[in-house]
Amino acid sequence: MSPTILEIKNLTVELDKEKIIDNFSFSVQQGDIVAILGPNGAGKTVLLRTLLGLMPFSGQVSWLKPLRKGYVPQRLPLVKGIPITVAEFFKLKGIKNYQESEESVLRSVGLEKGILKRPMNLLTPGQYQRTLMAWQLMSNPEVVFFDEPMEGIDVSGQQSIYRLLEKIHLEKNLTIFLVSHDLSVVYQFASKVICLSRNLVCAGMPKEALTAEMLGQLYGGETKFYQHHHD
Amino acid sequence: MTSHFLYSLVTGIFVGGIAGYLGTLMLLKKMTVAVDPLSHFVLPGVGLAVLMSFDPSLGAFASILLGVVAVWILETKTKLPTETLIAVLFTAGVAIALLIAPSGSLEEIFTGDILLIGPWSAGIAAAASLLIFFVLQKIYSKIILMEISEDLAKMEGVNTKKYLLVYLIALALVVALEVKLVGGLMTAALVAVPAVTARLLSRNLRQYAVLGIVFGIVFSVAGILLSQAISQPAGILITLTAVTVFMVVFLLKSLALRKS
Predict the structure, then answer these.
(1) Which chain B residue has its CA at the smallest distance from A48's CA?
(2) Looking at the 3D structure of chain B, how many domains does it have?
(3) Residue B173 belongs to domain spanning
(4) N or C: fewer beta carbons within 10 Å in chain B?
(5) Separation in Å, CA B113 to CA A16, A184, B194, B213, B224
(6) Which among B27, B156, B208 is the nearest to A93, CB-wise?
């Protein structure tokens, strides 16, 4: 079994005095793909940002060794106001952590070298998302956090980005956190799942944690449907 | 007269350049909220300086430093609606300036007076502009990254609060330097207009920054030359030159886009 890299104990996160995450414990092994599932407003992004150290919390979030982390935020607005090319965007990262050539990183996310000269505001949503991924992969991270990476990307684009994620995962034994509300994605890719909803948290392997009852609770309405069905 | 002209020209070149450069950062959305209250917050300071006859730039810097601290605290500590605060600061600034300014000096406060520029203040303006340039150059990419995403910047280990403060102090200094050139009411002309004009014409960050500097210099030098020619205050002419060039570039670009 792979070594444990993240230990979460009794994590509680409050936002404007409202408990978003309440007394949550979980552990993550190296190479896990952890899907964070739940309806809108359930606190998926909050959990992600907490794990990244971008939010105050109580409880314990311990990374068992220092790891290089990458983050692709949700719906990062297209950079419109700033005339900046992809190459210049990569330069913002600073050379310090630079471990791979731009070209090979671009290739790994399925982009051509020619894109470096393009202004960011002329990229398609798919190219933009891949550029953000490449930006993160540039510093050779060991853990990557994706917050709904498929927002605004058409279905075929989504498929190829998921294939890409799988490929990178295999090649580099990356640990991946993936926020999604797409169930099929979870079954297809995740080795672990965390589901969040108001006053409800489930966690574990997808097939065990995501019982019909749990899904019903997670997504409201369906609960009644299942109960009705059994009567 | 000729030496005064020379001093004001030197001041115009340096201050125009640095204002244009700073403006390219300021156009970014998070920062624009800081521009308005700050530029108008110079007014009471300038008024006080005129009243007590010391250097208007000093008065401007003192009062704007207050504004900087206020904005920084608001940006980092509270969730107060910034627009509301802009309105409060702006009107307060103008009202206090009108109250304390000696009668007959309003024009000087609002539009600046390049005849006040001597060899010393020209030298200080040039030196300060260069210094600010080097500081801004160091923080430029960090501020851009903060603008694209504060989370990404934090992930890269950027101390966002610190950079915001450095940036705001640079802004305070630039606005204070500008006061002699364009007065307390039109400081935005040399900060915002070169940057918006540059943005229309540039495809990448480098062009954008360089063009911002170039337009800043061109606008202020053109304004000063015009002011010599037609004996009107340089501040007004710098502002009008800037706005005119922006509008021409805007129209030409719209036409070019329609054709293509």
Answers:
(1) B151
(2) 1
(3) 3-259
(4) C
(5) 50, 69, 21, 23, 11
(6) B156
- What's residue B21's pLDDT? 95
Residue A73 near residue B152 (C-beta atoms within 8 A): yes
The closest of A91, A79, A72 to A168, measured between CA atoms, is A72
* A21-58 per-residue burial string, b: 16 or more CB within 10 A, e: under 16: bbebebebebbbbbbbbbeeebbbbbbbbbbbebbebe
Question: What averages of pLDDT result for each successive group of 10 residues across chain B (260 residues)?
Answer: 84 94 79 62 80 80 80 70 65 79 73 78 92 94 86 85 85 84 79 91 93 96 92 89 95 88
- Whether the model pTM is above 0.80: yes
SS3 A178: strand
CA A93/CA A75 separation, integer angstroms? 20
Q: How many residues are present in chain B?
A: 260
A-B Cβ pairs (cutoff 8 Å, strict): 56
Respond yes or no on whether ipTM tops 0.85. no
In angstroms, the Cα distances linking A23 to A19, A20, A58 are: 10, 10, 9
Closest CA to B148 of A40, A131, A56, A55: A131
> Distance (Å) from the C-alpha of residue B134 to the closest C-alpha of chain A?
18
